[in-house]
Amino acid sequence: MQIAITASRPADVGCLIFPIGKGATISPAIEAQALAAEAAAASRFTGEAGAIVELFVREAGKTVRVLLVGTGEGALADLEKAGGAISARLQTSGVVHAAVDGAGLAPALLARIGLGAQLRAWRIDTYRTKLPEKSKPTLETLTLVHDSAELSSLMDDLKAVAQGVAFTRELVAEPGNIIYPESFVERCRHLVDHGIEISVLDETDMANLGMGALLGVAQGSVRKPRMIAMRWDGSGGAQAKPLVLVGKGVTFDTGGISLKPGAGMEDMKWDMGGAGAVAGAMKALALRKAPAHVVGICGLVENMPDGGAQRPGDIVKTMSGQTVEVLNTDAEGRLVLCDAIWWAQQTYKPETVIDLATLTGAMLISLGSEHGGLFSNDDGLANQLLSAGQESGDKLWRFPLSPAYDKLIDSPIADMKNIGPRFAGSITAAQFIKRYVQDGVKWAHLDIAGMVWADKPGATWEKGATGYGVRLLDQLIRDHYQAG
Ligand code: BES
Ligand code: MN
Ligand code: ZN
Question: What is the reported pLDDT for 429?
């Protein structure tokens, strides 16, 4: 589905859409205005965000579908919700071209309808060879009708973000036999065409660098690990040091020798959701030519239990020189991140590092799917992230860190163990990563285990991959990390 923009209502549209604010009078610009108002009243429609009344009217001698769409209080999120509702309603409705009458809306608000619609229309039909005709998407264009010079640049900017989200969803939704470390890298290659510089470490490079923790996880799989770094510098040299983003990219997590139970294991195809969010955010930044210097790094491995796999009790040496007793091979994300984060700091000397990871099941127990967990050694950075979460809708909730929690991962035989006791599992995981953050570096860890996959549709996503994290990072960078 494409979003188009025109100054006046296009002739051949199968559906006319009228945004209606909460409690507003219903007087759409159609012949059958009274009918629309009665239909709204009969449906008890009062303009709640995302609510829809659908009717058919005669307009200029033709039968036309009309949607009244509630825009609630008119907040950005309300308009996105309205856009999402439009897509959900029309995508497979038979309507091919639809137009939104944006006359009553400020361009920035109308563009949010476009964004919501674009986000909600994303789907993956790659593997559906027998989709019934009636379930196939029909909606090709949604035209925003508004006489405004700025709408199209506003929309282009938001389209960049939507394309970043779409890329993340694609990476997350693809199964483990399709997306593995090497193929993840290949899917990222097109970013070069948008001005991103890509460098990749293979197994030999990582061995030479001493990434024993990441390699220990990878050694049970026939899929070779990779580390990808995607650099975007839109600051024109103004920002010498990049903001560094690091994603956990476990392309499938069986648990390794500490094998997970079978039920639900298929979910672990999305254990690369942090890496997916980083890749999608990089795409959004490049497409909107963000005036910022950002490097996105993904540690990519598959966690499998073959004869070469690491054993519980094995001791590995990380790139930092610190040693880890691997008591549970299913606590593999931190083993990947510790080497990725160390390498990121050695290579890019950043002031700020943010990692994103589907790190702990405990995060689902504490926050469900409403907030990602935030851990940080810096209140300023934490607050920036919390507000970017509020603005973008990719919400976060902060958790504590402290020496008392840190002590829980001391090991009797190595520098640390990779698991703590049963309780506070998300915090001890964060404490583990913290041991790899160098002095003076501002760091935030986002445990997004509950956020990357949805069991039910939301305002701007279908069931499945949500693309969580892209909008959060994009918003954070807009607010605080752009030059000038
Ligand atoms: N990828 C999982 C965490 C996860 C679980 C994400 C469920 C999303 C949904 C991670 O690698 C893991 O297995 N963590 C273990 C850690 C434990 C062994 C300390 C967990 O949370 O059970
Ligand atoms: Mn695991
Ligand atoms: Zn995992």
Answer: 99
Instruction: Output b/e per residue, 392-403; b: 16+ Cβ within 10 A.
Output: bbbbbebbebee
Protein residue with least CA distance to atom 17, ligand 1: 331
In the chain, the largest separation of any two C-alpha atoms, in whole Å, equals 83
Q: Ligand 1 center to residue 218 CA distance, Å? A: 16
Q: Which of 310, 360, 448, when mutated, tests ligand 1's pocket best, judged by the most ligand atoms within 8 Å of its CB?
A: 360
Q: Which of 135, 345, 304 is nearest to 219 (CA)?
A: 304
pLDDT value at position 60? 87
In tens, the pLDDT along 168-218 reads 999 999 999 999 999 999 999 999 999 999 999 999 999 999 999 999 999
Smallest CA separation from ligand 1 atom 5, residue = 361
Closest atom, ligand 1, to C-alpha of 362: 21
- Closest ligand 1 atom to the C-alpha of 358? 6
User: If you classify domain 2-148 with CATH, what class do you get?
Assistant: alpha beta
Task: For the chain, give every domain's residue range.
Answer: 2-148, 159-480
Question: Quick check: 484 pLDDT over 90?
Answer: no
**According to the model, what pLDDT value does residue 126 have?**
96
Work out the number of other CB atoms within 10 angstroms of the CB of residue 408: 17
Tell me the fold of 159-480: Aminopeptidase (3.40.630)
Question: What is the set of active-site residues?
Answer: 260, 334
User: Which residue puts its alpha carbon closest to atom 8 of ligand 1?
Assistant: 449
CA of 364 to the centre of ligand 1 (A): 10
Predicted confidence (pLDDT) per residue in 374-389, tens digit:
999 999 999 999 999 9
CB-based pocket (< 6 A), ligand 1: 253, 267, 271, 328, 330-333, 358-362, 364, 419, 425, 449
Q: Let me know: does 243 contact 292? Beta carbons within 8 Å.
A: yes
Nearest residue (by CA) to ligand 1, atom 9, is 361
229 sits in which H/E element: strand 226-233
Asked if pLDDT for residue 456 goes beyond 90, the answer is: yes
SS3 376: strand
Ligand lying nearest the CA atom of residue 448: 1
How many angstroms is it from 380 CA to the middle of ligand 3?
Answer: 29
* Per-residue pLDDT reduced to its tens digit, 110-152: 999 999 999 999 999 999 999 999 999 999 999 999 999 999 9
pLDDT in tens, 423-445: 999 999 999 999 999 999 999 99
- Residues 482, 398 contacting (CB under 8 angstroms): no
Q: Which two tokens stand for residue 7?
A: 């100054």
